[in-house]
Write a structure and sequence with these properties.
The two termini are 29 Å apart. A hairpin with a 3-residue loop joins strand 4 and strand 5. The chain has one domain: Thiol Ester Dehydrase, Chain A (Roll). Helices cover 28% and strands 37% of the residues. The chain is elongated, with a radius of gyration of 16 Å. The protein contains three helices and seven strands, in the order βαβαβββββα. It is an alpha+beta fold and 156 residues long.
């Protein structure tokens, strides 16, 4: 199985928040952000696997921390990348930023860590490609991901 770099699966996408995404006072629902986070992370996981024989399923949202509210009219940008891989699973990190288009101010609004499992057509776990880490930041993220994985295993 050919190893893949973090850069090969990195995913960035943006979406404007509309009135249907928010409560009556204009704050975007956390569930809307959570759905976008899951979508961005799923794309990164699929890019890492790059196989028609594999699908990925969300196994766990390890953390989803909201830092600031998002408002109607903000453009939300999600940046997702693979932090580490196991035999059949991957941890994906997602950073969420909101840009006020009138002022140009961009704020970090949420961060999340999700675990995906690669599965075959029958839903059975399958091996994922090894991860190539190339930068100091990628090594730091991988180390932190391994610590979170060890903590999850201790709780199980």
């Amino acid at each position: 199985m050919t190893p893949r770099s973090v850069a090969e699966s990195r995913t960035v996408f943006s979406q404007m928040m509309l009135p249907d995404d928010a409560n009556p006072i204009g704050n975007v629902h956390g569930g809307v952000i959570a759905k976008l986070v899951d979508s961005a992370a799923g794309v990164a996981a699929m890019r890492h696997c790059r196989s028609y024989a594999h699908a990925v399923v969300t196994a766990r949202i390890d953390a989803l921390d909201f830092v600031h509210p998002v408002h109607i009219g903000d453009v939300v940008t999600l940046r997702a990348s693979v932090n580490d891989v196991g035999r059949t699973s991957m941890e994906i990190g997602v950073r969420v930023e909101a840009e006020n288009l009138r002022t140009g101010v961009v704020r970090h609004v949420a961060s999340a860590y999700l675990v995906y499992v690669a599965v075959d057509e029958g839903g059975r776990p399958v091996t994922v490609p090894p991860l190539i880490v190339e930068t100091d930041d990628e090594r730091r993220r991988q180390t932190a991901a391994r610590q979170r994985r060890a903590a999850r295993e201790r709780r199980s």
